[in-house]
Design a protein that fits this description.
- Chain A: Its main location: membrane.
- Chain A: It is a multi-pass membrane protein.
- Chain A: It comes from Mesorhizobium dulcispinae.
- The complex is a heterodimer.
- Chain A is mainly alpha-helical.
- In chain A, 73% of the residues lie in helices and 0% in strands.
- The longest helix of chain A has 32 residues.
- Chain A is globular.
- By secondary structure, chain B is mainly alpha-helical.
- Among the domains of chain B are: 38 residues, no CATH class; 165 residues, MetI-like (MetI-like fold, Orthogonal Bundle), CATH 1.10.3720.
- In chain B, the strands form two sheets. Chain B has a two-stranded antiparallel ribbon.
- Chain B starts with 6 loop residues before the first helix and ends in a 7-residue tail after the last helix.
- Classes of the chains: A mainly alpha, B mainly alpha.
- Chains A and B meet through helix 1, helix 3, helix 5, helix 6 and helix 7 of A and helix 1, helix 6, helix 7, helix 8 and helix 9 of B.
Chain lengths: 301, 318
């Protein structure tokens, strides 16, 4: 009843006589945002969909030609692009798995009361708030084979993390794990604190083992929120550009977003890069859809 | 009933807390390294073994803000004596500060830092302003296809920046918005708007409708009720949303790299471009990084109770 009263004022009432109607206000509040997003997000995408069927090159003035599906055909049969996708998949698996393990592990450790817990939790969250490009750059010094503290601490001599083709991708993934484990930790902590305490007490009375309690009580109750963290991080890792781009130039660490950037803004192969952008976009939207679905599910609980 | 604690549980608890402390030290080590390198003498930044304890100095910050050249011969002692303390530090390093007449020539860093500030502040104000209205609209009124519209709004946030940047670059080039503050601000508003709508809708949902209903009964119009009752109630939410938007815009790299190169370039693409070839001066880079990260570190502490909400687009509140 309350919401009906809010949206349909009695036209004879004093409130309705003064000022705008609720319908006007609603439209005034919502429509500008929608228009803005359509103009600056959707319209550009339609624009680039058009270019994806052409051989347009933004750095040349000669007229472009319509080439149909040729860009898409070439991209999908290009071994180079496939290897970029394989690199990206490797990166996503390693870094997201690392973040889930480290983040959930940290949350399990933090899920108890101790002095200065709030301060320590906030300190642990610092990495994810910082600029990936700028911090990533600084990891070059940390990884440095000649004077990096990492090699010194672990006694790795002059192991060149970022210029060794075999390790560059994993070095970037380690930095990404450092940055984003706190994200998984934050979500896991919320999930853990929502587990009703009486379940643990009941398990303790039954003398259930730690493992039993963990797999039968903790994990099932935390898993929806873990799934959200997993999907969100997968989506973000798939899009990774800045951290990898500022850390290394190794071709073995060329993620799909970096490939796309180079194709569009270094080789100026605009038409083809629009096509590649669409392939990437469809993949991202698929994961986004999944993410929002689960987000709404958890929200309803 | 308080759980009965056995001695093994107490021991386990202690081990866990010790592990947390060690993990915290590991996580903070890279940040400590940035902060400490910013205050190191040049040669200690690349020493073997790495230097942990040293006498801090602010010379890297002097280098960060000035234009300098290598000196061919040693400085005239009289000139040295007359120089202010910070200029002496530069002479000590075998360089001299470039000047026009008596004015010190500043490096590009303060400009880039200001660009970051301008773009982040203006885009935050716009995104949060629009997000507050739209969040209220979605929270209080019936909207046909609300779930689909909200999904559409959120999905714009998920678009990979490089994908959006290609057509935007072409469009900006056509209308002359490349390398301009306005161009970057529009992109950041578009990027942050969806986030701000989702977060503000969550905050608005928490303000009881009865407050406005009471105001409407008292003869307020809907707009008066919104500005005088709802907005003050939503102040904390608006502030938290604003800080999140600011941090995102402040940290953004891909759009800034593609859309700006000089006039409107922000700090994130500028700082890595300083590496150049040869041996980089890590102390100066660290000083720039340190100043750049400082606001975000402060904001993280101010935001600590809203972080969970922010990173889940308002879905998980606690």
């Amino acid at each position: 009843m309350a919401s009906v009263a809010l949206t349909n004022l009695d036209p004879a009432s004093r409130a309705a006589a003064r000022g705008w109607s609720d319908l006007t206000i609603r439209n005034m509040f919502i429509i500008p945002t929608l228009v803005f997003l359509i103009v600056f997000n959707i319209f550009p995408l339609i624009y680039s969909l058009g270019y994806s069927f052409t051989n347009f090159a933004a750095n040349r003035s000669e007229p472009w030609q319509f080439v149909g599906l040729q860009n898409y055909r070439e991209l999908l049969s290009d071994d180079h692009i496939w290897s970029n996708f394989v690199i990206t998949a490797k990166y996503v698996i390693v870094s997201v798995a690392g973040q889930m393990i480290v983040g959930f592990g940290l949350a399990l450790l933090l899920n108890r009361s101790f002095p200065m817990k709030g301060l320590i939790t906030t300190l642990l969250l610092l990495p994810m708030m910082m600029s990936a490009a700028v911090v990533g750059l600084f990891w070059q010094l940390l990884y440095s084979p000649s004077w990096g503290p990492i090699n010194y601490v672990f006694g790795l001599g002059d192991f060149a993390w970022l210029s060794n083709p075999d390790s560059a991708l994993y070095a970037v993934a380690i930095t990404d794990i450092w940055m984003w484990s706190p994200f998984v930790m934050l979500l896991s902590l919320a999930g853990l604190s929502a587990v009703p305490q009486h379940l643990y007490e009941a398990a303790a009375i039954d003398r259930a083992s730690w493992w039993y309690t963990f797999t039968r009580i903790t994990l099932p109750l935390v898993s929806p929120i873990l799934l959200i963290a997993l999907i969100f991080r997968t989506m973000e890792a798939f899009k990774t550009f800045d951290i990898a781009y500022t850390m290394t130039t190794q071709p073995t660490a060329e993620l799909i977003a970096i490939r796309l950037y180079k194709q569009a803004f270094q080789q100026w192969d605009t038409g083809k890069s629009c096509a590649l952008a669409y392939i990437v976009l469809i993949m991202v939207l698929a994961i986004t859809n999944l993410y929002v679905k689960y987000l709404n599910k958890v929200k309803e609980r | 009933m308080a759980a009965v604690r056995t001695s093994s549980e107490v021991a386990l608890n202690r081990v866990a807390i010790a592990a947390v402390l060690i993990a915290t030290l590991i996580f903070l080590a890279p940040i400590y390294w940035i902060a400490s390198t910013a205050f190191k003498p040049k040669e200690l930044a690349v020493s073997v073994p790495p230097t942990v304890l040293f006498e801090p100095e602010v010379t890297p910050f002097v280098r960060l803000f000035t234009k300098r050249v290598q000196m061919q011969k040693t400085v005239d002692p009289q000139v040295y004596e007359a120089a202010p303390w910070w200029e002496k530090r530069i002479y000590d390093g075998g360089e001299r500060v470039l000047k026009v007449g008596k004015d010190v020539q500043l490096s590009q860093y303060p400009d880039r830092f200001m660009n970051s500030l301008i773009v982040a502040v203006i885009s935050t104000v716009l995104a949060v302003g629009m997000g507050t209205f739209t969040g209220y609209g979605f929270s209080r009124f019936k909207v046909a296809g609300e779930a689909d519209l909200l999904f559409f709004i959120l999905s714009t946030r998920m678009l990979p920046p490089v994908v959006v940047a290609i057509p935007m670059f072409l469009m900006y080039r056509a209308v002359g918005l490349n390398d301009s503050h306005i161009g970057l601000i529009i992109l950041y508003v578009a990027f942050n708007l969806s986030f701000s709508v989702w977060l503000m809708k969550g905050f608005m949902d928490e303000i009881p409708k009865e407050y406005e209903e009471a105001a409407l009964v008292d003869g307020y119009t809907r707009m008066q009720a919104f500005f005088k009752i709802v907005l003050p109630e939503a102040a904390t939410g608006i502030a938290a949303t604003a800080v999140f938007c600011f941090i995102t815009a402040w940290n953004e790299y891909a759009f800034a790299l593609i859309m700006t190169n000089r006039r409107a370039q922000t700090a994130p693409p500028f700082i890595p471009s300083q590496i150049g070839s040869g041996l980089p001066d890590w102390t100066t880079i660290a000083a720039g990084t340190f100043l750049f990260l400082l606001p975000v570190a402060i904001f993280t502490f101010l935001l600590r109770n809203h972080l969970l909400r922010g990173v889940t687009f308002g879905a998980i509140r606690k």
